[in-house]
What does this fold into?
Amino acid sequence: MKKSSADSPRKPVRAGKRGLIFVLLLLVVLPIGEILAGVLVAPTVVFLSDKNRTGRLIIRNPGSDPKEVEIRMGFGLPESDSLGNVRVSLLDSAVTDPHSAMDWIKPFPRKLVLPPGGNQTVRFVATPPRDLPDGEYWARVVVKSQESQVVMPSATNEEGISTNLNMIMQTAISLKYRKGNLYSKLELTDARATLKDSRVNVLVDLINRGNVSYIGVLNCRLTDADNNELSNQRIDLAVYYDLKRNVVLPISGLRPKPPYNVEIFITNDGRTDIEPKDRIRGNEIKYSLTVE
Amino acid sequence: MFKLKTKLTSGLFMLLTVALLIGGASTTEAQDVANGSATATILTALTVTADSAIRFGDVLQGVPVHVSNASNDSSGVFRIIGAPGREVSIYMALPEYLAHTTGGQDRMVIAFSETDGAWDDAQGPLPQPESGTSTNFNPYQSQTLTLDAVGGNMAIFMGGTVRPSPDQTAGTYSGDIIMTVAYNGN
It folds into this structure.
């Protein structure tokens, strides 16, 4: 069994012209041609800081009909159940988390109608409370969209009954406000691997010891007694407080030889969905265990 | 020296931008483009679309109508496009009744069973509910789904049942189905 870790504090970097170029680049390379209807939102994480209290998001309507779009702030973190299943539950009110930024970050505009092919930049302004401790504060940007012109169906006869269901779409984008000295550190407190049928279930318990969310990648590799790789899994990881994470590894290959071993590797590297300037490097974790 | 390096880095970044424009990249997949000291990250977008609503057709007083989640003609269809292989949480907010659109007081009950939702990560840009490759789920419970590893697609199909009363007022009844999508990994 091996375990190692290292971490390095980093201060947030102010976004400059590169940010603007980046947003322009986004508009060009996104897969507009493949989308028939709906609203596209990018990027999938918005960063603000005490150095730069404004941020932006692009909403695009690649469809052929106008879209009504509403933007509001919510709160929701990835949370896990006892089986290690992770999901995000969105709250609109009664948020008691001291790291919630939901109440002091405002989007502009909040309502708009996007014409076909239209783009809209949504800006965010943070007005954090005074004496806010160093660290990271979180919210979700909820982008709600629907057709702006709903054609009501009518029954084929006057005495008939017809129905109209509005299919409304919401995307909940992560927003993070960072202040002061920041450090990212994750601790693996427990890990178990059990064999069931022809699969290995790995359950990993993680606790965030830093003052920012740990954003990284969880890699699991299943090997047999001869160190032949039987399968592997790579999962994006976001740990805000604590997280129990389940990973299923199928046993594949010809006559694998027990006992089986699982190697766990957690790192900040490999997250290509976040700009390098927004990444806060934390420790890496290597851990191996034998399948029960 | 620092300024010179900054200018060179910005120049490389612009070159990469132009190269990508000419190349006409057309994928949602996040990419790292590295060249010397310049690295550009193309972030991933998240798109949710509603391709079609649940269609109950003409409804008769006192006669419930059920729509399957596996009907090309009648199922409701949502589509998610994001980063290939990434996990998302989805949550459906479902109506308990449909309201008369002319402002009357009359309502019509709508219900969803534990198998009225279905997901399918094997569908392309034009999801077909009748493909037979989908997995049913309870639409009242939030779901964690993994977008398909190549195109980042996920189709969600919805069925349901309306239960008009024997004295249901004629007219059109309307309600909202709201699907919320969030990445689990950020």
Q: What stands out?
A: Residues 1-16, 22-37 of chain A have pLDDT under 50 and may be disordered. Chain A has two domains: 13-179, 186-290. The domain at 186-290 of chain A is CATH 2.60.40.10 (Immunoglobulin-like).
